[in-house]
Amino acid sequence: MIDALLPRARREIAPGAVHVPDWLPPERQREIVDACRQWASGPAPMRHVKLPTGNQMSVQMVCVGWQWQPYKYTRTADDVGGARVADFPEWLAELGRAALVDAYRDPRAGDDYQPDVALVNFYDAAAKMGMHQDKDERSSAPVVSLSVGDNCVFRFGNTQNRNRPFVDVELTSGDLFVFGGPSRFAYHGVLKTLPGTAPAGCGLNDGRLNITMRVTGME
Ligand code: MD3
Ligand code: FE
Fold first, then answer.
1. Ligand with minimal distance to 210 CA
2. Site residues for ligand 1, CB cut-off 6 Å
3. Domain boundaries, the chain
4. 57 C-alpha vs ligand 2 centroid, how far in Å?
5. 39-66 pLDDT, tens digit each
6. SS3 for 188?
7. H/E element holding 101?
8. pLDDT digits (tens, 9 = 90+) for 136-180
9. Structurally, what CATH architecture does the domain formed by 12-214 represent?
């Protein structure tokens, strides 16, 4: 009961993995939603990614800077029309640097950070993401994750396998999570979203958006 009145505290879940609740003000959340809507409408539109197993991901994804397809990055959206992917905008890189400064409480933490790809994931009420590692990047630079819309249950695991030990964390609209250092190659996933929990004013009525910025290490 009283929990609802207390600010949720910044928390280092594991070395290099820092959760900063309520990092994005509502106006910034709405701006991000607007940008995602534009990217999602094309020319390299949002889609359900097809996995080599023949299954489709339940999450819908649009990419900026580079197109992610399992398990590689290309400059063109070869799985959905072939257009060149939208340029990675400087405002998003600036936001990524600010995220590192705040998460690591180090004014220099963002100095050399130049993310060149963003994966924008949209979760409807039924979408989830199984435990996986992000290892298609040729760089161990941190991943910056921003959440908007409905809450979700995020599972942060270990670097060895997709099983225990893991920590479950509820992510809400405006939350920042940074995964660097020894946590960069940890298994993680989204167990479920919590439909109907998006706060008024975040820019999304239904569903959840997650943006992850990364450094591909590619030219
Ligand atoms: C930990 N996205 O796009 S964000 C993904 O909420 C992805 O859509 C989830 O996993 C989402 O690959 C989780 C948190 C996250 C993202 C990347 C990580 C955690 C990570 C990379 C390394 C370690
Ligand atoms: Fe991931």
1. 1
2. 119, 121, 129, 134, 143, 145, 154, 177, 179, 183-184, 186, 188, 190, 210, 212
3. 12-214
4. 13
5. 999 999 999 999 999 999 999 999 999 9
6. strand
7. helix 90-104
8. 999 999 999 999 999 999 999 999 999 999 999 999 999 999 999
9. Sandwich (2.60)
